[in-house]
């Protein structure tokens, strides 16, 4: 079986390609390299440079590589940018998925894993978010991921394709420093960036109904996320025609922003740069923590890495890409 990983040269995609190839799966990557880096790919993994919006490139890649399954990660993923540029996000994330699924159906591909997001839930008011928690996205990014899930399930049901939609929670860490996330869009790299500039990390809101007043989130190590993709892909390959799986990928453990700031201070060797606080940001729910019961029962999967290894590996990657960063 050959798996085509779209967006496979990106931060998450490269880790998925690494995990699947190391586990003995035959993989290839399609990436337009707009944010991906070819050097991230494991040795021997074929790379097709192209977009999921390009049907001709897709048809050729699926046929020439003998693709039997797809892991679809290629997407725009910045929440703030999606608010400013909704048309871009719907074109890339929804229309791009439509073109890809049309090619998949035409090629007779029978397994499809879709990269979704906890953003589909919006602002859930529950202790643990289950897959049955209502989906009420609050930004265009989350909307495109929910629409993508609908499209994947409907296509799978209509054409006999086994599908899995994986709803990621907060992803961080790196398998190796060179594979680290180089963007500054999530809490950990945002705090790293300020510390590198000698500034105090920022916390938005200290009056939430949580133990220390700051938001609580579920953080998943990128290596664990990658193995979740491997487990889902293997389930679809082993049980063709089983319909759709929709699964949270998280740890089930909540970490507050204050706890994260304290740990980052220790790992970076700058505990004196205590976090400065400010007012809440619009749209930040108090608590978003995954229930991982369903993925454990369906795939026998659970997270293996702890928070310290996540932050430490992320910092090692940050330092590789930012030589000016202070060393402990």
TrEMBL record:
Which cofactors must be present for this protein to function?
NAD(+)
A molecular function (GO) term:
UDP-glucose 4-epimerase activity
What EC designation does it have?
A: 5.1.3.2
Catalytic activity line of the entry: UDP-alpha-D-glucose = UDP-alpha-D-galactose
The pathway it acts in is: Carbohydrate metabolism; galactose metabolism
Q: Which domain of life is it from?
A: Bacteria
Q: Kindly state which keywords UniProt assigns to this record, in alphabetical order.
A: Carbohydrate metabolism, Isomerase, NAD
UniProt domain NAD-dependent epimerase/dehydratase: residue ranges: 3-240
Q: Name one Pfam family in it.
A: Epimerase
Q: Which GO terms describe its biological process?
A: galactose catabolic process via UDP-galactose, Leloir pathway
Q: What InterPro entries does the entry give?
A: Epimerase_deHydtase (IPR001509), NAD(P)-bd_dom_sf (IPR036291), UDP_G4E (IPR005886)
PANTHER family xrefs = UDP-ARABINOSE 4-EPIMERASE 1, UDP-GLUCOSE 4-EPIMERASE
Q: Give the family from UniProt.
A: Belongs to the NAD(P)-dependent epimerase/dehydratase family.
This chain's protein is named UDP-glucose 4-epimerase
Organism encoding this protein: Streptomyces cinnamoneus
